[in-house]
Specification:
about 280 residues, alpha+beta, Lysozyme-like, SH3 type barrels, four-stranded antiparallel sheet, 4 helices, 23 strands, globular
């Protein structure tokens, strides 16, 4: 598939991609985005998600630059010259945004039509809306499963045509805008998001886009966000003893989740590990 970008618009071969315009966008503040963020839609067709992005009358209007269907069809919703509202509260390395804008100013949002986590029934794995999914990927999410329960659950697989189209698009973003990092929504918002999830082979995708050995771009951290500091506890609950009080701004790497509690590694200024324990997600960002 030949994908190119000109003046913010996606062209597949010699034709412009279908454009279902979202009103939910704003201008970049002068920052040149260098990150591609991969999402799943948690829904059915790419068109249904693109049409959802046309809604400005919801409590929290959202959008993405493109939605890619399971057959590789690309639908554009926001020009790449504009900022889509896809990231929410998020951070990556030392880049972040104000309030709920997160990494929107630093990134391009790419949605893949996919149901995400599945529900196990007596007749097999199904989406949250009851759509049967054959041959799901069975895995536990690296951030903990959405339900909070441990162990492997089902995830809808990503078809090869869809992944190839996404890789061609991100290569075009790298060529046109200098994108040099690819992350999942679950990388930049690990305490609240699970997309694109364990069914998406991020390491292989990075290599498909950049070549070489670019399989790992993982350097996400959280920080203690309360002035009074935060207790690092021996277990996931307030009844567990506190090891120490972490000062505001302490950098933490999330390792696993249990409910709203996160098992984290405390990082020194040079990024090396100092200690580990549990913190509540409400006090980190």
């Amino acid at each position: 598939m030949s994908v190119s970008i000109s003046k913010g618009l996606v062209r597949v071969g010699s034709s412009l991609a279908r454009f279902v315009k979202s009103p939910n966008f704003s201008a970049f503040d002068g920052t040149k985005p260098k990150i591609a963020v991969i999402h799943f839609t948690y829904g059915g067709s790419a068109l249904s998600s693109a049409q959802w992005f046309t809604r400005a009358d919801v409590e929290s209007p959202v959008s993405a630059h493109v939605v890619i269907d399971r057959d590789g069809t690309i639908i554009q919703c926001v020009s790449f010259e504009d900022r889509a509202w896809h990231a929410g509260k998020s951070s990556w390395r030392n880049r972040h945004g104000k309030h709920l804008s997160g990494l929107n100013n630093h990134s391009f949002g790419i949605e893949l039509a996919n149901w995400g986590p599945l529900v196990k029934t007596v007749s097999g794995w199904k989406s949250h809306s009851g759509v049967p999914i054959a041959d799901p990927v069975l895995a536990e999410h690296k951030n903990g499963n959405p339900s909070g329960a441990g162990g492997d659950i089902g995830w809808e697989p990503y078809p090869e045509a869809q992944v190839n189209a996404a890789a061609a698009l991100v290569r075009a973003l790298a060529s046109t805008y200098g994108v040099d990092e690819i992350v999942g929504h679950d990388d930049i918002a690990p305490t609240r998001k699970w997309d694109p999830g364990p069914a998406f082979d991020m390491a292989a995708f990075r290599i498909a886009v950049f070549g070489g050995t670019r399989g790992a771009d993982t350097d996400n951290v959280l920080t203690v966000s309360v002035d009074e500091g935060l207790n690092l506890r021996n277990g996931p609950g307030q009844h567990f003893a506190s090891q120490t009080l972490l000062p505001a701004g302490t950098r933490l790497r999330p390792e696993q989740r249990q409910g709203r509690w996160l098992y984290v590694t405390v990082l020194k200024e040079n990024g090396s590990p100092l200690s580990s324990g549990w913190v509540h997600e409400a006090y980190v960002a």
